[in-house]
Amino acid sequence: MGATPEYTKKAIQNYNNKFDRIAVNLPKGSKERIREITGKSCNSYISELVIDDLERLEREGNNNEQ
After folding, report:
1. Which residue in 11, 37, 46, 65 has the fewest CB atoms around it within 10 Å?
2. CA triplet 62, 63, 66: central angle to 5 degrees?
């Protein structure tokens, strides 16, 4: 196979720049448990939990300022 074209590398880099990468270590088997119980991927489940909690904390913070 040939080398990856520069325009493809640039497109991948532009896509990756839209996200923060965070590594999370969970006990062995957690990934499968998340999939079985929620039907979601590990990344989707954790992302949803974090975003929901951040939004809740922001709302609570805004209520405390009033």
Report:
1. 65
2. 95
